[in-house]
Design goal:
By secondary structure, this protein is of the alpha/beta class. Helix content is about 40%, strand content about 15%. The termini are far apart. The structure holds NADPH dihydro-nicotinamide-adenine-dinucleotide phosphate.
C-alpha cells in the first residue's frame, strides 16, 4: 500500500512555480494575487493569511483586501472591478463563504475570467468541459489529478467513482478524470445515489468529496483500489490540543490496508490546493502577458 504524500508533491509543484516566477521576474513581470475576504470568519482568515504567506514565500505580489461583514453587494462588486482593471493583479479570489446577503453567483460573474484562478466563472467551467487548456480549473481537483499522476496511477480505462457533485470538487474532478488525457470511465455519486457501497466496490479509483467524517468504510472499497480523500472534517477529540482533530471522508484505518494507494488526511489533498492556486496565478500572469 502506497500512502500518497501530498506535502511532498505540493512542494514539487511549488518548486516548479518558483522557477516560473523567477523566469517571469527576469522579464520584469511579478505575478500578483488578490484575495478578498468579506467578514471575520476565523477559518476564512486562516485560509486567506496562508495564501498571502505562500505568495510572499514565492516572491509573488499579493494583496489582501478585508471588507467588513456589512459590506454591500455593490461595494464588493466595485472592489472586484477595480482588481479586474489592476495590471499588478493577475489572479483574484473571493474567499468563501461570504456573508448571507452577498450573492455568490454575481460575485463569480464579476471576476474577469482571465483572472478567475479559482475556476468558478461560467467561461472557465465551459473551457473545462471543452478541454480548452486556456481555462482555469478549480485548484482542489487539479491537485487530486496531480497526486494520482505523481503516484504513477494509470487512469486510462479505469472505473472511477467520484462521490460528491459540487462545483468546487466533484463536478470538475469528474470532468478531469473523463478528459482525453486521463480517459477514466467516471460515475458521479451524490446523496440520492442508490447502493453507493456496491457502486464503489466496482471502482478502481474512488474520490471522496462529501464532507462527512469516515463515510467511506472498508465495505465500499475493493482490494487494490486507489482512494483519494478530499474531505476536511473537524471531529471533537478531548485529547487533541485544540479539542478537535481533522479527519477525511474515508475511514482511513480500515480502508488503507485494502488499497493500492491512498491519500491521508491531513497531508494528502489539503496541501495541494494552495500549491495549485499559486500555479493557476502564474498561468494567469503568463496568459495576460502573452507568454506561453
Ligand atoms: P458540498 O457540501 O458542496 O458537496 C458535498 C457532496 O457530497 C454533495 O454533492 C452531496 O450530495 C454529497 N453527499 C452528501 N451526503 C452524501 C451521502 N450520504 N451519500 C452520497 N453523497 C453525499 O462539499 P464540497 O464539495 O465543497 O466539499 C466536500 C469535502 O471536501 C468537505 O469535507 C470539504 O471540507 C472538503 N474540501 C477540501 C478541500 C481541500 O483543499 N482539500 C477543498 C474543498 C473542499 P448532494 O449534491 O445530493 O447534496
Amino acid at each position: 500500500m502506497q500512502v500518497i504524500d501530498g506535502k511532498k508533491v505540493a512542494e514539487e509543484v511549488l518548486q516548479e512555480v518558483a522557477q516560473e516566477i523567477n523566469a517571469l521576474k527576469s522579464q520584469g513581470i511579478t505575478p500578483g494575487l488578490a484575495v478578498v475576504l468579506v467578514g471575520e470568519d476565523p477559518a476564512s482568515q486562516v485560509y486567506v493569511n496562508s495564501k498571502a504567506r505562500k505568495c510572499a514565500e514565492l516572491g509573488m505580489h499579493s494583496e489582501k483586501i478585508v471588507l467588513s461583514a456589512d459590506t454591500s453587494q455593490e461595494e464588493l462588486l466595485k472592489v472586484i472591478e477595480q482588481l479586474n482593471n489592476n495590471p499588478a493583479i493577475h489572479g483574484i479570489l473571493v474567499q468563501s463563504p461570504p456573508p448571507k446577503h452577498i450573492d455568490e453567483a454575481a460575485v463569480v460573474l464579476t471576476i474577469d475570467p482571465a483572472k478567475d484562478v479559482d475556476g468558478f466563472h461560467p467561461e472557465n467551467v465551459a473551457k473545462l468541459v471543452l478541454e480548452d487548456e486556456t481555462g482555469f480549473v478549480p485548484c482542489t481537483p487539479l491537485g487530486c489529478m496531480r497526486l494520482l499522476k505523481s503516484a504513477g496511477i494509470d487512469t486510462c480505462g479505469a472505473n472511477a467513482v467520484v462521490i460528491g457533485r459540487s462545483m468546487i470538487v466533484g463536478k470538475p474532478m469528474a470532468h478531469l478524470l473523463m478528459a482525453k488525457d486521463a480517459n477514466a470511465t467516471v460515475t458521479v455519486a451524490h446523496s440520492r445515489t442508490k447502493n453507493l457501497a456496491d457502486l464503489c466496490k466496482g471502482a478502481d479509483i474512488i474520490v471522496a468529496a462529501i464532507g462527512r467524517p469516515n463515510f467511506v468504510t472498508a465495505d465500499f472499497v475493493k482490494d487494490g483500489a486507489v482512494v483519494v480523500d478530499v474531505g476536511i472534517n473537524r471531529v471533537e477529540d478531548a485529547t487533541a490540543p485544540r479539542g478537535y482533530r481533522i479527519v477525511g471522508d474515508v475511514d482511513y484505518a480500515n480502508v488503507a490496508p485494502k488499497c493500492k494507494a491512498i491519500t491521508p488526511v491531513p497531508g494528502g489533498v489539503g496541501p495541494m490546493t494552495i500549491a495549485l492556486l499559486m500555479a493557476n496565478t502564474v498561468k494567469a500572469c503568463k496568459q495576460q502577458n502573452n507568454i506561453r
